[in-house]
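To: structure desk
From: M.T.
Subject: fold request, one chain
Message: Could you run this one when you get a chance? Sequence is below, nothing fancy, just the single chain.
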Amino acid sequence: MIIITKSEIIELIWNKNNKLYTKKDIEYIVNCFIKEIQNGVKVGEKVKIGGLGTFSLYLRKAYIGAISNSKDDTVIPNVKYVSFRPSKHLKQ
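Reply: Done. Structure tokens follow.
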């Protein structure tokens, strides 16, 4: 598993394009890209990025379950979560 931070992404892009763009330009582009994905998902739209995949918002319905430190059954409320489904190109 590779864990990469936003600042590492900016650094990687800047290392390959430092003659064309400043680091601030790349940071702005990456932040705008992430913000557009967030905005689309927040309003319930599927955000499809060709060659990468689709981000979408799902609602996990409430259910009765046990919490590990409690012996009683508890109602676990509805939870919204973001799902990512990779494109066919990414799976290859």
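Reply (cont.): The CA atoms of residues 10 and 30 lie 7 Å apart. Let me know if you need anything else for the meeting.
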